Amino acid sequence: MINSLLNKGAILLISGPSGCGKSSLLKKLYAVIDNYYFSISTTTRSPRIGETDGVDYFFVTKEEFEQDIKDNSFLEWAEVHGNYYGTSLKPIYKALDEGKLVIFDIDVQGFEQVIEKLRDITTTVFITTPTLKELEQRLTARGTDTIDVIEKRIKNAQVEIKYTEEYDYLIINDDLDEAADKLISVAKSALIKSKMFDNTTLVKIWNS
Ligand code: ADP
Ligand code: 5GP
After folding, report:
1. Best residue for ligand 1 mutational test, from 126, 138, 177 (most atoms within 8 Å of Cβ)
2. Given a cut of 80, is residue 82 above it in pLDDT?
């Protein structure tokens, strides 16, 4: 019955400083939920070792990205750490129409644009390390970025951490498994927000 009441899918939007553990937590989430769609962003940054085009990101040139902006192809986009990042509209609406949980890993600027457009169906989570020091250690230990890039990310993190209160939930990723359990609970709740259900149909079935 529940499926016949569902209006559309829901959005789970996560933000947090680069290196706080978003990808690690999402991997744990994907192991326990299904019927989700991870929104693959488009970016002008270079792929890291181990990243695949079309899987982690769609890697494009600055010119290609600027053309997409002109064509209004993005639900949201922003410049982060000196590169462009954006969420393409089409696959998002398709996944929502299919009733999926659509997952965004986007920055604070993107968060503000999505909330403005799709507040009712969006649940937001800010993820952080317990301390800035821990963030520096994780970025260094990950070994995927140069010192220059890490410094840029640390600087940006000090700005981003001021926005936690704007999000529905805050997860401090200290112990990975504990933090993953929290994210899983939030993801499950995102799908039962009352706004996700069509009240007219509910009342009809309820009265029958
Ligand atoms: P993000 O996706 O936010 O940039 P990652 O998931 O790539 O972050 O994590 C950054 C680094 O920190 C990785 O090397 C990852 O293995 C490590 N990491 C993630 N969560 C934890 C944790 N709770 N404790 C210790 N290290 C962690
Ligand atoms: P990274 O380069 O570490 O993969 O991502 C850097 C930052 O860009 C992270 O904070 C990530 O959440 C953000 N980001 C990734 N994709 C998008 C996107 O499509 N839009 C916006 N606004 N930010 C994004």
Report:
1. 138
2. yes
